[in-house]
Amino acid sequence: TPAELRHLFVGASADGNARFSSSHDTLQANWLFVDPESGMQQYQWRIMRYGGRHRPSVRVFPARDAGVEWVVATDTAALAQRFVAGNDPSVAPLELESGQRYFFEVVATNGASHPTTHDSARILVDLSPPDVTRVKVGSLSIADDERVNAEDEVTQLTKDRVHVAFV
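Above: the chain's sequence. Below: its structure in token form.
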């Protein structure tokens, strides 16, 4: 029987999926496959750009002109494997586009040479900073320790703290 997938997360956390990435050249994934009968033999992984409901997904790492379709990892000593794409000099660099969704495709092969393939959740690459429309000094609700005049200027009455809210 193939190995059992315990988790496959995109992002740096082993506790769940990240929803966004602010990097144009790095994505992380971590996973845990187990096979108590024959152990794990190897992992293969790649990064795909999500095509949408009516377009196919496209491999972006390893790059299509790199001469390989998968990154192969045979170090199965650790139960959870963590790979950072973008820092491997043997394959072309990773170039992620803002506004695109990406996911990891992972093939785990056990000691009996049975492969199983799983995809991670999709992560959105967002390279643009948020737009700050205004900054309000003081708490979001008027408190006893601040006064607001007609020009929305806030006077903070305490000397030990200042509240700032980005809205």
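Residues 77-82 have pLDDT under 50 and may be disordered.
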